[in-house]
Amino acid sequence: MSSAIELINPKAESVRRGQALQVNTTGAMGLANVVKGNLGPRGTLKMLVDGAGQIKMTKDGKVLLSEMQIQNPTAAMIARTAVAQDDQVGDGTTSVVLLVGELLKQADRYISEGVHPTVIAEGFDLAKKDALEFLETYKRPTDLDRETLVSVAYTSLSTKLHQKLAKKLAPDIVDSVLTIRPPPPPADAVGEDAIRAPIDLHMVEIMKMQHRSDLDTKLIKGLVLDHGARHPDMPKRVENAFILILNVSLEYEKTEVNSSFYYSSTEQREKLVESERKFTDAKVKKIIELKNLVCDQSTDSKTPPKSFVVINQKGIDPMSLDSLAKAGIIALRRAKRRNMERLQLLCGGVAQNSVDNLEESVLGWAGLVYEHVLGEEKYTFVENVKEPKSVTLLVKGPNAHTIGQINDALRDGLRSIKNTLEDNCLVPGAGAFEIALSHHLSTKTKKVAKGRTKLGVQAFADGVLVIPKTLATNGGFDVQDAIVALQEEYEASEEGGGGGNTAVGLNLQSGSPMDPTLEGVWDQYRVKRQMLHSW
Predict the structure, then answer these.
(1) How far is Cα 43 from Cα 309, in angstroms, rounded to an integer?
(2) How far is Cα 454 from Cα 59, in angstroms, rounded to an integer?
(3) Which of 86, 93, 114, 294 is a Cys-bridge partner for 82, taking CB atoms 3.0 to 4.6 Å apart?
(4) Secondary structure of residue 58 in the 3-state scheme
(5) Cα 458 to Cα 362: distance, rounded to the nearest angstrom
(6) Can you give 375-419 as a three-state secondary structure string?
């Protein structure tokens, strides 16, 4: 008699419900334990080594989760949730992993005591809905002056870089975002015209230069191109320069269809070469004529002489380069397309696809253009522009590890300022929101919940405390002492008339409670909202 059971895949692993639950919670808690050490300014660096032996050092949760090889299906799903958090708001990846891991840990505790998972899930849903409503009342509409924005940038950067570098880069990040921010709409605008255009962070170019130390990283209100002039006789530094932005080929080009030229004598061949050369020389001549027209205008003794720079997206052949060099023109060829777009925003002017109608109105302007040579690499700096709508953050460092680390931190810092300006509000940091939320869920929400759903609400209230607990652990403080002190301080403030809006965070220097709003420790509203939505 044949067996009544047939296995579809004999190699598949089959586990019972209890074991499956254990596998899921263990995977989530294991992933949380890996990233736990990253959280906060006192967190530690993680070193990743790939199969080729390449080393990557990071404190960024997104980078860590992207590089890790995760086998457990639950852990892989949590990692994807964290990466989605980074794509949406640019920060909070470590917090998401910790929160999900801790909530599953709390759920496992109740389930082991006989509570059904559905009951816990109902309590979690109720707590999540109430947590989002509480966030709306807890956020602080603040006057977003430059000092507050620098505090926001520093809070973001200090979790990924050392304190001295974070303090130096925070003002640069704020200035770069404020520079590219579109102006507000007119007061009489209506409909779609009354909505302010969003901030485009692609207008901030991050250029890497392996040179000197990380503290030499700086903001340039201009553009840095990663190549220089291709002729040794061209000027290396010019001031008061007109910028001609071109997308015109100044070299021989192959025809689009296969074609042949036949000649029977050297004279005919020379004529062919000469006519082909004449076509390119005519285009170069028009550029030189425009340069003579705009640069030879009379200037007084106080004004520096005018210069001319050509930045071309296509190629320039050696003979054309020679002609431009003799005319005193700096010419750069094969510029990246994204830089051509930024140049127009930076210097003004209009990119030209032809040299037939060149006039002064199509030219941009820059106060200073110079070339910087570093080993075999050449960089061209375009600075001192009138109204920059694009900027460059020049990342410097002694090695690739440092440069990569700064690059990841700058990306998060830029997103933090963008989020804050668009939200127009902030949330007190240093674990203050989690302390307040846990108290709110344990008291008010738990009273509303009915029956055993209260257990799920209490599990959620205990779970959100993982953020201040981890901050205390990474700061080297006793977790129980720190959390109890924060809760007592918060309850005392509430009894004193705080009205649910009291901010009590953890001071990572002393381990004692503090008011993060006075210390300038801020979290972003949309990061906290997305974190709660991710569950």
Answers:
(1) 48
(2) 37
(3) 93
(4) strand
(5) 66
(6) CCEEEEEEECCCCCCCEEEEEEECCHHHHHHHHHHHHHHHHHHHH
